[in-house]
Amino acid sequence: MIDSQQSAVPPSPPAAAPTPAPALPKVSARYIWLMALAQFGVFLAFITPLGISLSVKVAQLAPGHEEYLGYITGAGAGTVLLFGPLLGVLSDRTRSKLGRRRPFMIGGMLLGVVSLVVMATAPSVFVLGFGWVLAQLGWGQVLGALTNSQADRLPEEQRGKVAGLVGFATLIAPVGGVVLASQFVGDALLLFLVPGSVGVVLVTLFVCLIHEQDSRTLPHGAPLTARSLAAKYTFKPRRYPDYSWNWLSRFLFYFGLTLNTTFVAFFLAARLGVSVAEVAGTVAALAGLGVLATSAGALGGGFLSDKLRRRRVFVLVAGAVFALGAVVMAFASSVPLLFAGSLTTSVGLGMFSAVDQALALDVLPERETEAGRFMGIMGFATSIPQSVAPLIAPVFLTIGATATGKNYTLLFIVAAACTVLSGLAVQRVKSVR
Questions:
Q1: What is the pTM of this model?
Q2: 157-170, pLDDT tens digit by residue?
Q3: Minimal CB count within 10 Å: which of 180, 251, 408, 420?
Q4: In this structure, how many other beta carbons lie within 10 angstroms of the beta carbon of residue 20?
Q5: Annotated region Disordered: where (predicted)?
């Protein structure tokens, strides 16, 4: 999060621009594929509950109270916001024979398994919510440690490729998870644990087969205090300008994305003149085709950005492509145009997610000592828009609204403007082409 209160920490003497970290050697194909598989496993174990298992359990525990699902997922999102940078800082400062990241993968995976058991056997909605919070802490930390490993190990020329492959893996994992879980709807324990067991196997493969250097010889740094820890949730934009522009670019894109996707079922129902229940099949079809379109954007953008040694232009194109799709949807009056606009936004999303992740690794400050901390702060650029945009969207929906419908056209135009601004913001990055 950007530090707007410069007096919150003791002033430090003016510092020169951070010294670039030494070039990293290329990682092996084994590292790349095991990384993609591990993240596939995490998303299979972690996102399956969000996609189907939690809904089934809420329906069993509190029939007719679907709103409880929102409370549960909201509590989980708040947990990530509160603990993400803290766990990143602790990972940076871990000194062990296993390195800095693997202990958090192992611990997070074990906590993740416990969370699945808690959710599967929960006797009440409160316990179910507690289990989801544990899942955010456990599986979320495994995902964070895997991302931090990329920051530690990936050289610039491989970051786009890996981001594309990981993006593809994490896109198909929720689909596979829902299909897998649908076979066990009648058994709550298997509903949660079968996808989780796949995640455990794939993460364990990464932990066992990918060596990480002993971190016990690394400097320990100054002791943490409550004040110094609070300061690690912020950063000074003037000291890290490229990181700051990348943070702002991600924030703007995900703000536009959230505006575009949150109310899509209501939008489609309004445009097609049917009820929200009747539009479920259309939403499912769009989701299935959207996975293919997003994967194409992620793989194409990631590999090309590495090959051409360019990041900024791909982020700009991704923002423009998403904006084009959002505008087409805004003015579409037929199903083919709605599908065309939606699939266009999916291509833009895939390209952005892969190339932006590579760019974030390119401009990451203090890579050798505080990679986990800065990756945690970068996560705010995704989580804050996802929390705030749905609260602001009704303002645009009511401007010029009529008695027969909301102003979805304006909402989608605003979403398009945000993603274009995202692409423009990243052009201010100077250290990456």
A1: 0.81
A2: 999 999 999 989 98
A3: 180
A4: 8
A5: 1-20
